[in-house]
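FYI - complex with adenosine-5'-diphosphate, inputs then prediction.
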Amino acid sequence: MSEALTILKEVFGYPAFRGQQAAVIEHLTGGGDCLVLMPTGGGKSLCYQIPALLRDGVAIVVSPLIALMQNQMAALLELDVRAAVLNSSLSPREAAHVEQRLLAGEYDLLYVAPERLLTARFLALIARVRIALFAIDEAHCVSQWGHDFRPEYIQLSVLHERFPTIPRIALTATADMDTRKEIIERLGLETAEIFVSSFDRPNIRYRIVDKTNSRAQLLHFIRAEHPNDAGIVYCLSRKKAEETAFWLAGQGLRAMAYHAGMSLRERSDHQEKFLREDGVIMVATIAFGMGIDKPDVRFVAHLDLPKSIEGYYQETGRAGRDGQAADAWMVYGLNDVIQQRRMIEESEAHARFKQTAARKLEAMLALCETMTCRRMRILRYFGEATAIEACGNCDICLNPPRLHDATVEVQKALSCVYRTGQTFGAGHLIDVLRGSPTARVRQWHHTRLSTFGIGKDLPEKAWRAIFRQIVALGLLTTDSEGYGALHLTEASRAVLKGQRTVLLREQLQSKSFSERRQSVDSKPFSDDELALWEQLRAWRAKTAKEHGVPAYVIFHDSTLRELVRLSPQTEEALHQVAGVGTRKLEKYGEQLMVMLRNQS
Ligand code: ADP
Ligand code: ZN
């Protein structure tokens, strides 16, 4: 294992292994199969990259996305590791060239798309070379129930049949038990060692706020907390993604859209900009994200409710892969609850599928309405035993909501639903409760109802939050025709009769979070430090451009930050900085020393 540590330091420039990396590397290098479950940003790549360098022959890495392969290769080439890709982005001539070099034993790692790997031709080709290991990245793509399903992945079991002595490693960041079981079955990993890491992402701060005006809230959030940062904004529909991107751009932010309805060229153009330029905001549907291993995404915002905690966690997990402070921020309101429930109801899927979808949605809603630490809820949902009750880095922990007895308000709302004939949506009901004589209220003679104006004492916003919670709690449901009309349920009867009290969350008087913000790197830079930081960033941008790679492939933000803080004055000291390996020292040491020495 000392050899592995040397490679970690010399090639990758990191001082120590993280979590289970060392154990996985030892197992795989020794020839054992394994399944690695690690959260996004946990450091999965090193788990096969280091064994690839330690074992004889070439490691064949199966990866579902071209962008992912391309980025991995670019990062490895920067470190002078002999890596290549084989996928449809190559011309036939380029591909033939890669194959020749493969046969000549000139690669340590080869990234291959599954459909190419599975061709008889390619299988025959690799039978002629020495193979160090097979790595199956994003292994959850074998799962037929997941949204990343790739049919070719199922056939990857052929690797074991054809090459039974070559060790295999399957990796995923999808945490739930069903997917885990499916991976093991479909890839024939019954005897493989399973390495499960904690799925906690302590640097991500989770916040779910009441939706009032989502665009304005989003803009405020970005301006107050993430000016000039890269981030992802998720929306449910293509149209909304486009409109939101357009609107943000109109507000002077560098925002772009990404969804499956755009042309391939436009999509890859936007993705390239997001990866390579600083501070780009991608407004996207869930079509965007898998394989985006940009480490310095500082926030992920949701303008619509995700369908499940799995989806939410995967999407938010794209923030802060570099371990630095990041935000997962979401706005959520009554319409989200209604819309998601209706989508399940109206879908043509099998009853069993609908049931599963409904169960997952309820868990997501419970997370939104929780009174206790969000992180603990998420981790327990994934079956992780957690010893502590509060994380100290989510909105609930930082600004605990209060439960209050809202039975009277809920009774008012329910009886208003009853008196208006159970045919109206929340907007109209709130008008009646607040005694607003709108045209519609007058048209239906609802000014004459006993419930007209009985809720004057609360602002509209408060009533919206109350209705949202009532629906989330199942005290009201919507009809299936889809007009959003609210109906009483079995459970509402007990409340109306006064047999059941209802506790609701107190409206949060959310103070500006930026005031409370204490980032991982809390001490602000001095003026001199700031000047050096800017200089290093400019140098990095220029160098990245020259090499045709994203900036973080040259150095991570965290490395630049350490350079500023530590201001190393010798090459030896420079080598000590995390992220500065031998190769990068050789390549960039002199240029860095000039900037660092000038500074002091
Ligand atoms: P994953 O694929 O699990 O999401 P990556 O393999 O992309 O994660 O690693 C996430 C980031 O953490 C990368 O930028 C990687 O360079 C960095 N990293 C991985 N292992 C270590 C380590 N032992 N020490 C420091 N940084 C590491
Ligand atoms: Zn918490």
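Residues 511-521 have pLDDT under 50 and may be disordered. The first strand starts at residue 34 and ends at 37.
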